[in-house]
């Protein structure tokens, strides 16, 4: 394995990706680029919408299947960028550009690892998938591709974790709460103030503690993040709405959390979705054991990924650092890509699932 050549090739591809704006739901051009790269390198490419994948030759239904997944889309660039976010530049060993860290480095590193691993027979089938709409948890991303793939046994999701394995990940549920009152003139003792009706529930969200805490993810976290009420200063508001961001651990499904919330609150509560549950993988899983035996340190991740949509065991591990994601002047170290390619190959080569 010529790791220097593979790194240079990955870096060149990543530069091309950065130069193509690929905001969530606008990934068509970057998907074209990646599909072209796959086909130019002699692999059969499959595509559905803006999701691109390829499979190792000689698929055997008797073997388990390992999915390597990373996402093509990026968030919108924040205003604080001091350089053009779509102009890839290498300075002092760092490649700057939107999506370089999240998640382009994982896209190209996993692809190089896939190419290397499929040169020899493995005890598993291998699928590489670069998916769309991860940043918005969109339904035209990984979720719509999984039914088109052979059954998946385990997944390795490339996300910036410093190449340490995230063996658990918090889920997400967004709640909209509505308190109803009765309008009246603020100067007189009339009406029912919807804000006052909402306050006890807001206080409950702030102070309630779920009994079960995760050793990896900690407690379920609920935060009131948006509040809307009132039309003008002299009118008692008849409606107050607020939004709650709920980050679940593996001890509770989103549906269970919702039922607990409804049992403790007075006002109308609606969940936007239950689909983004917490995920975790058994520490005795062969993939996790391979990681720990090599000195990798398992941890729980507070950030959400497409793992939430995977109904099979998965872990998250990739080059870069989560703290760089979604920030101005995002970058990836070239050496982090080199390390990732080498580690992916060494950890997965010969793995028995």
Strand fraction: 15-25%
One letter per element, helices H and strands E, the order comes to HHEEEEEHEHEEEEHEEEHEEHEEEH
| Arrangement of strands in the largest sheet | 1-2-6-3-7-17
Largest beta-sheet details: 6 strands, mixed
- Could you list the spans in which at least 5 consecutive residues all have pLDDT below 50? none
Description:
This protein has 353 residues and is α+β, with helices and mostly antiparallel strands. 28% of the residues lie in helices and 24% in strands. It contains 8 helices and 18 strands. It has a 6-stranded mixed beta sheet with strand order 1-2-6-3-7-17. Strands 11-13-9-14 form a 4-stranded antiparallel beta sheet.
Write the layout of secondary structure elements.
Elements: H1 3-18, H2 28-40, E1 46-48, E2 51-55, E3 65-71, E4 89-91, E5 94-96, H3 100-117, E6 125-131, H4 142-145, E7 154-157, E8 166-169, E9 171-180, E10 184-185, H5 194-207, E11 221-229, E12 235-236, E13 239-248, H6 254-264, E14 268-271, E15 279-280, H7 286-293, E16 299-301, E17 314-316, E18 331-333, H8 334-348
Defining key terms:
alpha+beta; four-stranded antiparallel β-sheet
TL;DR?
The chain is built from eight helices and 18 strands. It is of the alpha+beta class and 353 residues long. The strands form five sheets. A six-stranded mixed beta sheet has the order 1-2-6-3-7-17. A four-stranded antiparallel beta sheet has the order 11-13-9-14. A three-stranded antiparallel beta sheet has the order 4-5-18.
């Amino acid at each position: 394995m010529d790791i220097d050549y593979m790194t240079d090739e990955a870096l060149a591809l990543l530069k091309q990706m950065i130069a193509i704006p690929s905001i969530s739901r606008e990934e068509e051009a970057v998907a074209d680029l990646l599909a072209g790269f796959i086909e130019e390198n002699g692999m059969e490419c499959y595509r559905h919408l803006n999701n691109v994948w390829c499979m190792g030759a000689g698929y055997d239904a008797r073997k388990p299947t390992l999915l390597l997944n990373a996402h093509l889309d990026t968030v919108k660039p924040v205003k604080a960028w001091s350089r053009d976010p779509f102009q890839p530049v290498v300075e002092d060993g760092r490649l700057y550009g939107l999506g370089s860290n999240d998640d382009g480095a994982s896209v190209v590193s996993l692809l190089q690892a896939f190419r290397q691993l499929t040169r020899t027979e493995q005890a598993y089938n291998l699928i590489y998938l670069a998916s769309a709409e991860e940043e918005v948890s969109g339904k035209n991303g990984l979720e719509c591709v999984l039914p088109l793939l052979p059954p998946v046994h385990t997944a390795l999701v490339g996300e910036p974790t410093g190449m340490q394995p995230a063996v658990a990940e918090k889920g997400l549920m967004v709640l909209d709460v509505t308190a109803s009152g009765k309008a009246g003139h603020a100067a007189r003792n009339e009406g029912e103030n919807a804000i006052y009706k909402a306050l006890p529930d807001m206080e409950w969200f702030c102070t309630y503690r779920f009994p079960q805490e995760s050793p990896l993810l900690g407690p379920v976290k609920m935060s009131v993040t948006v509040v809307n009420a009132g039309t003008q200063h002299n009118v008692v508001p008849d409606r107050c709405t607020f939004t709650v961001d709920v980050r679940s651990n593996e001890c509770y499904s989103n549906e269970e959390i919702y039922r607990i919330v409804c049992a403790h609150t007075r006002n109308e509560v609606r969940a936007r979705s239950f689909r983004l549950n917490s995920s975790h993988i058994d520490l005795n899983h062969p993939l996790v054991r391979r990681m720990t035996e090599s000195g990798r340190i398992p941890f729980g991740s507070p950030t959400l990924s497409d793992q939430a949509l995977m109904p099979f065991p998965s872990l998250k591990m990739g080059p870069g650092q989560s703290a760089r994601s979604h920030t101005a002047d995002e970058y990836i170290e070239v050496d982090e890509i080199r390390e990732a390619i080498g580690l992916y190959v060494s950890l997965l080569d010969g793995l028995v699932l």
